[in-house]
Each structure stands twice: as structure tokens, then as C-alpha cells.
Amino acid sequence: MKALAAFFYRYFVFFATLMLGCLVVFGSISLIQRQLLHAAQDRLDVLSTGQAGQLEARLVQQQEVLLGLQAAITLDPNLDRLQFYNLLLQSNVMYRHQGLLAIGLAHPVAPDQLAEHIAKARSDKRVAPLAYQNYKVEPLNEKSTMLLLDYLYPINRLTEQFLGNNLSESKALQDGLNLARDSGRMLASEIFTLPGHQRDAVFCLFAPIYSNLPAEPDVANRREHHVGTVIAFIRINPTLQPLEKTMQHYGLGWQLSDQGYALQTWANDHVASEISRQEVAVGHGVKQTSVQLVHLPARQWRLQINAYSELLDEHQNEWLILAAGVGFIFSLIIASLMQYLYQSRQWSLNILAQAQDEESELRAQMQLLSQAVDENHDPIVLRRADGRIVYANKAANLLFAPAGRGLLGKYEVILSQSEVGDIHHPASYLVPFKAAEDSVKQLQVLLQPIKNKALQTIASAMVVHDMTAWHEQMQELKNSNDRLLEMVNISSDWFWVQDSEFRFTEVAGGFFARLDFNPNFFIGKCRWELGSGGLSEQEWDEHRALLAARQPYRDFEYTSVIGRETLIFSVSGQPFYDEQGQFMGYRGIGRDITPIRHAQKALYSEQQRAQATLESIADGVITTDVFGRVDYLNPVASSLIGWELQAARGQMLSAIYQSVDRSSRLPLPELVSEVLKDGGEYHGSRRSMLLNKFGLNFQVEECAARIRDEQTRTIGAVLVFRDISNWRDLDERAELTLD
């Protein structure tokens, strides 16, 4: 970023002049381009106006044919079908107007005159007898006057479908016919398609015919004197064909829409319907648009012409590009000339300033280098090839010349003879040095030869670094390692290290010395390669999965045969990594837990025997802690008090065991509480009545005693009771016998 900024600063005059010239050229080109765009829009408007005028002229010619026919029929309202046909045939209208599909004459017919009308149409065999032999009216309306199309020219397979049509019931023509009849004007219909010819769109022109119409008629007069309507069917595609060719020639798109009747054009809910459209560049945006209106009788069409590129002369853009290129080149030449004139002066000034800056910078660097070397904490001594000291920094003078005499100019050896010998390669060594304060320092000496361009040694540099602290740390580390090794040898545990493949690389500990076993036996082996260890294959798989996940583990137990002894080992391991985070393996400790497991096994056996004894005796036994909470009860006690061990454990004894006096039925003090409170070892037996959980009562004999540990500390109490209900019955029977 700085280099780019410096580049622009250096050629500032060039870029400023070039930018100014480009702005002038761009402004001129933009102004010319705007004028060309206005000219292109004017050209498009002229083209659209001409096309709309030509389309309207073609429609006016077709209207004139209809107006002439309207005038002829108005003069002779009784014109028959043959005369109508010959009149149009002789005028050659179909050839002069290619968009004209057919011209017809529709007469109003009352429902009571319908049969006579059909018979008359079928009986006239002079014109198209085959088309009229099946003449019929569709759709039929027997309630009101129908407007039937019975005269038609020409009659062919396409147009014969119009014969007999009741136009007053046509959705496409009904509104236009009624409006033309009531207004007395020629009207154009909306666009519709012929049945069976969905692609052939047509529209109609209506011209009403009246007989004996008053001079200033109203709507009622026009309806009363209406004798028929002349209709021209005009095809859309041939009418628009010249427009399509012109638009294709210019590469323009266009859209023709029907705005509706003139009275409906400004209605808020009126929506224009599309007549036809053509796009020459689908997916491209419209650059220019021109809209013109085409006027029909009481109706308007909207012609929109779209230009997808500016309607310019093909050479205009080339001239603009050429002018822009010439302007840019001219600006470039002027900018280069201005830059040359500016830099010719600046170059000489820059060369002088650069030389001064380089000299100042070199002096500053030399001063900084001299200060850095002089203030360095490591002694630095520089000798010539003859051994004369030519430089010594403050640290060197302070360490090797404490009397203040200095080292400069001397030839004496400071630390070793290597200093004054021929030095061709760097050398490094450690020497002890007795300082002025009678302390011995460990110094690391680095001798570096200084050579000229011919690779001849002209001087040498001696750099001394005080390694006393490092030497003491290394000695302390050695002592620590020795102490650790001694502790390992006398410890009952042992230490082990595994590599990344979980093979032992180091095993140490005094445990193996006591067993007279060489721990190198484990080196290079995995733990599971030493034997099954009393574990299943699944347990070993779980252990290997734990190692593969590089997770720490504790107290992993397995058995191992060492010598003639089978021992139980418990090992714990932790993964370790190098400085780059690379997995290196596991390391941990192991210990012999064989005596612990044997003691646990013996204790468990003793507990099982005591448990079996308690569960087999006939007395109920309940033990508590020092707070009187139930810790254990045997099956006999459970059956007498009605409590299970799981539910009773942790409860206060008074909550599950309650005894009352046999005679008074009053609660008796708890024997366990008295034993724990009074500090007595044993409470003599007594007879009482036990109330159990389910409301039953038993005659029992109970006693309690304190439980102590091996240090004679009280750890709880035991309550022993037996069911003597049967004995009570015997005593009562004996008393009755004596009485």
C-alpha cells in the first residue's frame, strides 16, 4: 500500500493532467451521447407515428367500403341477396383489402316471422344454394327480436358458419351492435377468435341501416326504424403484416392493445386487452419506448414500440469511440509532457537529497551499532591478526580489567591461547574464570574469524557469555535426577513409558529389584502381549479403544506372572505430546495391589459368613449408627416389624420399631437410645409388646448393646429381640392350672 501511494505521489502531475483531460473528453462524449439518444428517441417516435398512421389508413379504407355499402342499402332497403352478392363481387373489395374476411348484412326478425324468414332464405337458389339449403338460426331466442345474419359475401368453408347467426346473442358483438344501432354511428368491435380457428383473431365494423328515419332521431326512433346492420369481418394478422415486417427490419419489439370503446377508455376499472405482440430480444431490457394511438370508429388501439438498443445510425457509435480514443491519446501525450517537465527538475533535487539521507542514515546506523555493542551484557573483544586488542566493550573491561586500566592496545591472553592463534573457523568452548570477587564463573567463549574479500583472516572477535547460572541449573537438574532415581529404586511402585504404538520403552522401579526380576523384559512389548492378564478379549478391546482415543486412564487392573508369583497390578497412564503437539505415547505408574485384593477377598468372605449367621438365627437383629439411624435388619426382624431393609435403611429406629408395656400399653423408652446416651455397654433384656407396621402386636423379649471399633470408639448399636408369644400362652395356662 505504501509503495502504491509513493508511485502515485511520484507521478502526481502525470495522473492529474491525464485525469483532467479524461474528464474533458468524458464530458464531451457524454454531451454528444445525450444528443444522440434524444435523436434516437425522436427517430423511434417518427417511426411509431408513421406505423400507427399507416395502420389507421388501412383501417379507414376498410371503413370506406362499409360506408359505401351502408349508403347503397340505405337507398334500396329491399335489396335482395343476389343484388347484395353481385354488388360486392363487382366492387372487387376482397382483392383490394386483403385483411377483409367477409361482409354481411343482418336483418332484425321477430319471433313470429322466424319460420317465414327461414323458408324464404332456403327457397332462394340463386346464390350458394348448398350453403342455404340447411339455413337455420343459432342461438334461437323466441322472446325478443333477433338480429340474423342472412346476407354474406363471400361464402366459403370458413365464412358459411356466420349464416343464420343471431348476432344479438353474441357476447363478442352484442354490445357493439346495440351501441351502433342506438347511436347511428359506425363502431368497431373487440377482438375475438372464430370457432375452430383459435389462432385467427378477427374484429368487426358495424354500420346500422335505417328506413324513413326522422331528421333529429332519438334512441327510440333509431330502434323503431332500424332495418339492418352491415358487418365487416376483418382479420388481424393480414392487417398487421406490414407492421410486423417493418419492426423485424429495424429489430424492434411491439405490442398492440385494445383500449376499448372511447367512452370506456377513462373508466377506472377498465383494463386494456392485448391484441398482438412481438419481442425480438427476450430477456433483454427495453432501452426506449414510443406509444401511439390508432383511432377506430368509437374505439382506440394502443401501439407500443420497444427498442432493445438505441435506434442510432450504425456508424455513430464508431465515431464516438474513435473520438474518445483520440481524446485519450491527446490527454496522455500532454500528461507525459507535463510529467517530464516536472520530473526533470525533481530528479536532480531527489538525487542530492537521497545522497544526504543515505549518509545520515549510515551514520545513525553506525552509532546505533556501536552503542548496542558497547552496552551489550556479554563481553566482546576485537583483535587484529597480530593479536593486538583494538576494541573492548564496557562488559569486557569490567570483567577482565577491573582496575580500570582497560584492554585497548594490549596483546595479553585473557582466557586461553586460542585467542591469539591462527583462527580460520569459528570455535566455541567452556572455561572457568576466577573473578575479582573470588567467585568462579563458567564462561562460554565464541571465537569468530573476520576475513576480507580475499578470504584472508584480518582480525578475530571473541564473544564471552556467562554460563554460571546455566551450569548451576544443570548441576541442580542432575542432582534432582539422581534423587528421583533413588526414590524410584526404593519405591514400591514403578514407572513406565510407552511409545506411540503403545510399546514399553522404559520401565524402572525398586519393585522389580525386590522380586529379582529384570524390567527390560517389558521393553518393546505391548501390555496385552505379556499375557491375558485375567481379562477377557472384550476388556482388552475396550482398553485398546481408550488408548486409540488418547484418553488418560486410572487403576486399570490385570494379573501378571513374575517368577513363580501371580500378582495383581493396578496401572494409571497419561498421554504426552511433543512441542509441536505430536502424540508421543503414554507414561504412568504401576503398583502391586495383590495384598489389598487378598485382604478384600478375606474381608468379603468374613462378611458373607456373618451375613449368613444373622440371616439364619431365630432372633430379630437391627443395627444402627451413632445417631440411631437404621443400618441393617435381618429377615426375622423384617418379618416382625413389617419393614423391608431397603425402605428401613436410613430411617430413625423409632420410626420402624415401637414397643409398649404389656399391661398399660404405654410406650417404653428405646433401649438403643439408652445405650447410646448412657454410655453403657449393654442393656439387660426386658419383655414388651411390639407394634409392627401392619397393626399386629407380638410379645417380644428385647435387649441392646453398644458397637465399638478397634479403637473402642462407638460406631453404633445393635438391638436383638425374639418373639415369645407362644411362651406367654404357656405361662398363662400354667397360672390357670395353679389357680
**For this structure, what is the CATH homologous superfamily of the largest domain?**
CHASE domain
The count of β-strands is 26
Arithmetic mean of pLDDT: 83
Global shape: flat
Please identify the structural class as seen in this structure.
Answer: alpha+beta
Domain PAC: 554-605
Protein name: CHASE domain-containing protein
Domain CHASE: 151-245
Domain PAS: 365-426, 606-679
Kindly list the characteristics that best describe this protein.
six-stranded antiparallel β-sheet, membrane, 4 domains, CHASE_dom, transmembrane, 739 residues, alpha+beta, Beta-Lactamase, disordered C terminus, flat
Description:
The chain is 41% helix and 28% strand. The protein contains 20 helices and 26 strands. β19 (565-577) and β20 (583-592) form a beta hairpin. The strands form 5 sheets. Strands 1, 2, 3, 4, 5 and 6 form a 6-stranded antiparallel β-sheet that branches. Strands 22-21-26-25-24-23 form a 6-stranded antiparallel β-sheet, sandwiched between helices. Strands 12-11-15-14-13 form a 5-stranded antiparallel β-sheet. The chain has 739 residues and is α+β, with helices and mostly antiparallel strands. α2 (12-75) runs antiparallel to α10.
Set down the secondary structure blueprint.
Layout: H1 2-10, H2 12-75, H3 81-91, H4 93-96, E1 100-109, H5 114-123, H6 129-132, E2 146-153, H7 174-183, E3 187-188, E4 192-194, E5 197-210, H8 219-225, E6 226-235, H9 236-250, E7 253-261, E8 273-278, E9 288-296, E10 299-307, H10 316-374, E11 380-384, E12 389-392, H11 394-400, E13 427-434, E14 440-451, E15 457-466, H12 468-490, E16 494-498, E17 504-508, H13 510-514, H14 537-548, E18 553-562, E19 565-577, E20 583-592, H15 594-616, E21 620-624, E22 630-633, H16 635-641, H17 645-648, H18 653-656, E23 658-660, H19 671-678, E24 682-691, E25 697-708, E26 714-723, H20 725-738
Antiparallel strand pairs: 1-2, 1-6, 3-5, 4-5, 5-6, 7-8, 7-10, 9-10, 11-12, 11-15, 13-14, 14-15, 16-17, 16-20, 18-19, 19-20, 21-22, 21-26, 23-24, 24-25, 25-26
Helix pairs in contact: 2-9, 2-10
